[in-house]
């Protein structure tokens, strides 16, 4: 009988993840294994994978172990590595709570983007301190078919291009990454958000994620959108001392983003575990070497 590997499935505003608990970092997860697990037809299916490892057991996180017991080793659906995943870290915290490693209240989680504080609320919402946005200078353009838009370059630990559009349908089918220029703006690729106004302090987005394609939500993307919209609207809490909050509708739900006067950004939304089961290790090995 083949070995079995435990997994769970979860989502945050329908940004969905395969969760692989592996406290001692004993499971080999090369990019092909991650892509096989995230495959929606031949695998379990997910926009990405959350490898749950004790910080002390992972070479990229050992330096954060004193601050955060657990490391979110996040992978995109194509197996590539990303610096940060905002919905992922909220689902990661929900998993830790379910597994008895965390309780309601605050929890520190190590990520490639540094240690993040996550708050598990009584009402089921999960809030994460996402850190500060960086807005590099320089004009960026993104395009879809014949249309192109100026975009705001926003770094949330990972790269984003935020384009304001009249109609979200103008983003087309988003079956391939929207071209951008100049190429030097994003040497490692980019997540592209298309944003439409819905009312005061209220926007809606569609997103094409680097390494995952169009997804139903992107937490770092929603934060990038909130900051880009605030600056477009002439609001900068670090200058005025007044926090700014945006409701961001994503295809899979709603996220609430607040930028505080110290520049720190908080994101709140749901995080749900929907299933758990076992992966057949023989299948995974075969799928990985195929
Ligand atoms: N869905 C995530 C972002 C995941 C990483 C992204 N695809 C990248 O490559 O930067 C989120 O919720 O932030």
Hetero ligands? ligand LBFN2T5F
Reported for the largest beta sheet, the result is: 18 strands, mixed
The percentage of residues in β strands lies in 35-45%
So how many helices?
5
Gap from first CA to last CA: 21 Å
Stretches with pLDDT under 50, minimum 5 residues: none
Question: What is the strand tally?
Answer: 18
Structural shape: globular
Family: Belongs to the diaminopimelate epimerase family.
GO molecular function, one term: diaminopimelate epimerase activity
Function: Catalyzes the stereoinversion of LL-2,6-diaminopimelate (L,L-DAP) to meso-diaminopimelate (meso-DAP), a precursor of L-lysine and an essential component of the bacterial peptidoglycan.
Organism: Streptomyces iakyrus
What labels describe this entry?
binds the ligand N[C@@H](CCC[C@H](N)C(=O)O)C(=O)O, Diaminopimelate Epimerase, Chain A, domain 1, single chain
Describe this structure in a few short sentences.
By secondary structure, the protein is of the alpha+beta class. It is 17% helix and 43% strand. The ligand N[C@@H](CCC[C@H](N)C(=O)O)C(=O)O binds at residues 15, 48, 76, 82, 85-88, 158, 191, 209-212, 215, 218-220.
């Amino acid at each position: 009988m083949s070995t079995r590997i435990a997994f769970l499935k979860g989502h945050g505003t329908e940004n969905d993840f395969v969760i692989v608990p592996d406290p001692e970092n004993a499971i080999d997860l090369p990019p092909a294994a991650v892509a096989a697990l995230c495959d929606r037809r031949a695998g379990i299916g997910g926009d990405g994978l959350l490898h749950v490892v004790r910080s002390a057991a992972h070479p990229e996180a050992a330096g954060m172990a004193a601050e955060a017991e657990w490391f979110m080793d996040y992978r995109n659906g194509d197996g590539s590595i990303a610096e940060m995943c905002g919905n992922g870290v909220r689902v990661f915290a929900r998993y830790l709570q379910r597994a008895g490693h965390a309780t309601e209240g605050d929890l520190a989680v190590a990520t490639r983007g540094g240690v993040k504080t996550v708050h598990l609320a009584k009402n089921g919402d999960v809030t994460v301190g996402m850190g500060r946005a960086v807005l590099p200078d320089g004009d960026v353009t993104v395009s879809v078919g014949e249309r192109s838009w100026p975009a705001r370059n926003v770094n949330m630990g990972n790269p984003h291009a935020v384009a304001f559009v009249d109609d979200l349908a103008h983003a087309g089918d988003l079956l391939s990454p929207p071209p951008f220029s100049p190429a030097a703006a994003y040497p490692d690729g980019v997540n592209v958000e298309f944003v439409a106004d819905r009312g005061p302090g209220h926007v809606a987005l569609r997103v094409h994620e680097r390494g995952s394609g169009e997804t139903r939500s992107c937490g770092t993307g929603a934060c990038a959108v909130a900051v880009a919209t605030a600056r477009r609207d002439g609001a900068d809490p670090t200058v005025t001392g007044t926090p700014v909050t945006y409701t961001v509708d994503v295809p899979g739900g709603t996220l609430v983003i607040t930028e505080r006067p110290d520049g720190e950004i908080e994101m709140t939304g749901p995080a749900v575990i929907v299933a758990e089961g076992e992966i057949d290790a023989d299948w995974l090995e075969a799928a990985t070497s195929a």
